[in-house]
Amino acid sequence: MTRLTSKLCVVTGAGRGIGAAIATAFAHEGAHVIVTDKDAASAQSVAARIGAEAMRLDVRAEEDWDALATAHPQIDVLVNNAGVTGFEDGAVPHDPERASLEDWRAVHAVNLDGTFLGCRYAIAAMRAMGAGSIINISSRSGQVGIPMAAAYAASKAAIRNHTKTVALYCAGQGLAIRCNSINPAAVMTPMWEPMLGTGPDRQARADAFVADTPLRRFGRPEEVAALAVLLASDEAAYMTGSELTIDGGILAGSAAAPG
Ligand SMILES: NC(=O)c1ccc[n+]([C@@H]2O[C@H](COP(=O)([O-])OP(=O)(O)OC[C@H]3O[C@@H](n4cnc5c(N)ncnc54)[C@H](O)[C@@H]3O)[C@@H](O)[C@H]2O)c1
Q1: Per-residue confidence at 90, pLDDT binned at 50, 70, 90?
Q2: How far does the signal peptide extend, from start to end residue (predicted)?
Q3: Both 160 and 206 in a single domain?
């Protein structure tokens, strides 16, 4: 497994879930991986498991990105994976009528500001080599409206657009720095815990979330990681500004599609 041999790859929010799966897959493909997370302990535990380096990095904090730039002024791959729904600390309203400005901004601070800061760092850290791959984890929720998760949906839509801006900017500068997004739908990770809850109706709730998904199941973090490996590798050298959807087929249809 040598698709990423000798590549230096940074993954944010890699202490668990999709980020941990991406870091694991990258290490498996021969990359030198820097596992970062705002939770230092989880980053360290993943790094120890896969033989990688760990670093605490809160994607909202400019000074944390500066510290990363000092430690690693040159990289090959960055995955902007860290993200929040806004429901981590309980069920607060996130619809467009009742969401508070504070909660709206808190979601954007991680998802959008974090991705902006990550892209900015990566362009500088890839410029010397003139090449690299930036992978932004957006979401199916950034492709459709989500009435009960307005900030999440808006921030993920903005990530898709910023991905294209970064791709065009780098190409315009004559750099082979590629920037693409991955748009997953429901992938079973700890992010779902507040929505699934505990108790006897947990399975029924999980089934309901994927009832409209043609493949009728949650995706697995490893399935998203496989796409990240492709985008990080030189096999994807002609891909930039593009989006890879991984959603069990849900966006292939719509309410207007014939049954
Ligand atoms: N799980 C899904 O169904 C799904 C679907 C579409 C998109 N996504 C996206 O995939 C990404 C990963 O999701 P997941 O399901 O693995 O989530 P998760 O909640 O399981 O893990 C998120 C990780 O990000 C870290 N994190 C949170 N805020 C951070 C910050 N400010 N700085 C650094 N790290 C921070 C957390 O500590 C955690 O380790 C997110 O961007 C999410 O929006 C997930």
Answers
A1: confident
A2: none
A3: no
Q: Tell me how far the alpha carbon of residue 157 lies from the centroid of ligand 1, in angstroms.
A: 16
Pocket of ligand 1 (CB under 6 A): 12-13, 15-19, 37-39, 42, 57-60, 81-84, 110, 137, 139, 184, 186-187, 189-191
Show the domain range for 146. 8-184+220-245
**Statement to judge: residues 212 and 162 lie in one domain:** no
**Any domain includes 253:** no
**Which pLDDT band holds residue 27 (cuts at 50, 70, 90)?**
very high
What distance in angstroms lies between residue 233's CA and the mean position of ligand 1's atoms? 23
- What's the confidence (pLDDT) of residue 257? 78
Give yes or no: residues 128 and 111 share one domain: yes
Is residue 3 a part of any domain in this protein?
no
Which residue's CA is the closest to the ligand 1 atom numbered 23? 13
Residue 20 amino acid letter: A
The residues that are catalytic are 152
pLDDT over 80 at 255, yes or no: no
Q: Mean pLDDT across the stretch 14-38?
A: 98
Q: What is the pTM of this model?
A: 0.98
